[in-house]
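Morning F.,

Quick status update on the modeling queue. The single chain you submitted on Monday has been processed. Sequence for confirmation:
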Amino acid sequence: MASYSCYAASGKDTTNRSAPLSICTRFLAAFLLVVWASPVRAAEPPADIADLFPPSTLAYAELTNLAELAPELASVFKGTALEDSIPFIHGKKDAAKNLIDLNGKKYLAALGLFTSPEMLGEAKKLRIAVGLTGFTDQGDPEFTLVVLTHDSPATGLAARAFLTMTSSLRKVGDVSKVPVFQFRSPNINYDNNGVPTIQQDKPLSDGPHEPTFAYTLGLFTVGSSKNAVGSAVKRFTGEEKGGGLASTAAFKEAAAMHRKTGAFYFINFPDLCSKLDAANKARGVARGVEELVPGVVNSEFDMLAWFKMTANPKAVKSLAGSLRFRDGGLSVTMSATFDPTHKSPLLEFLSGPGVKVEMLHHVRRPVAFAIGITLPEKNRTAALVGFLDGIAKANGELGRLPSEAVREMEQKFKVPLTDGLIGKTRAVTVFLPTRQELPKDAKPMPMLVLHTEDNATATAWEAFFPQMIGDMSGAAMAPQASTETIDGVKVFSLPGNGTAWNAAIHYARSGSAIAVGLDRKLVAQAVIPDAAKSAVGGTAAVSPPADAAAFGVVSLGDVVLGIIDKPPPGGPVVPKEDEPLILPNGNPLPEDFIENMKKARKAFVESLVTLPPATLTAKRVGNELRVELFQPKVQTGGLKTVIDAAASWLDKAGGLMGAGRDGRVQNDIIFGKW
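Structure tokens below.
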């Protein structure tokens, strides 16, 4: 039967079912010979995979100890539809009602392969790392990915199959006698009879910056150019001598602290900043660090610019951290090492005493995030204002810096801001409610709760707000606040004309706490602590470490929603909402296709609500800043609802992706416009 099936698949005559070995059978025999044969001798791999990268590598990441990591990854899919994808996918095939739906299963099947026990079992034998090694003269990033395959003949076989069976891959050169490949379309000419012929009279040459591949026994490498893969190949074969990245002092220090089972990363921060600035000059376009990663869409938030402006790039020596499983959850850490000879606004700002959980009792759930921060006991105003200056510079805001505004308002209103108000505010709680009642065209803003040292300071803040808002909006004189009592709390409201948020601002006080925000009902709630209804109450109860300068909770589900829920396009020209959905063959999409897509997406969105909040902790230890984001309950079925819903959404989206529609229309449908 196996022989018959293979012949049928190849389109050959199947009447002789006892024919000799078919193509499929011969392929299977070759595979078994490779797996069972004695390993062929390869170059000895380096003791440390980081030595395949030059010591000048700007950023590096690796999967550490895959033998232990693979079972931990498998536990994430325990009990989900992707634990054993065969019955799940074939169940979806049996339920398909049209060819589009049926053909879209290949994307779901590919995901099932990556989460399969066989794939995770084979991954135990590999060592994998990737690095940003520099930039080209044109300012393009140079990446290298290396996979050491010594203990995995199947992975080596897969690499050979990819390089030999992909018709568009062609050899463009050699490095240390190892062939290097890039994608090339054939140069086709037609003779007088119209017969196509391939012109191969000229040898192919490598392109300066495009996907590049190389394989030699024991090493598969992918890079952004021949030079990128060539460096790793030369170090692997021993042609390139000298110490690699693993021999540098900063890397050794970072690896000793953070290299644990999971994913480990290291960033040479000073060199990365200087080289990126030079690359941006060469390109003539300023880019954030997110834009260096292929396929990542540029966002309004430039993480690198924000960190540079608040941390002071001259002060940061290196960044390192890990992503690993612990206590059934997922921990993401970041450690920044600072040079004590340079001041860092970020490090000074996060130097306060331990956060108390009561600071988060002012935040009612649901919220996207809620973070309590204690302000330093010494030089409090300078630390806070310096940090705010950094944020303003990173956001590219024009006009006065916060430090200049404080100085001017002190002189203008004769208010002791430095010593009397900011200096006597011991902590602040910052949070973003999931839902706010805002007027049209208002810009959502986080809410604040100021925790002052005494009632008198809170009262002074309350009296100063009209002057401050009037100054920020450019009003000739301080506006008159209106009042409203909500649930026994007196809430003040000031017009927000001319402000960045374009909405009225509300504030209220109770004791030594004063709350500020754009939703008056939420302001009234925030000024009164309620542990049971807070973001850290009930089943979400958590407590900060004793020495944390900042501690809070983050709803990763809301973060994901912020990414996939794109606002509708605005402006004078927008796509028509009723654009007909026609397939390339001229036929319309099945009537229920969009409806099923909407249902699958809605189920995925609702599944995100089941995620328990993640905790965020930041603390200063000497000249080091340590940050951890911890998402609990991701193993042993903790993500079952989310994974199953995501798989069903991909099942429906796969049908559309497989239909070959225009990319913009695909995204509109998949991400919920239709």
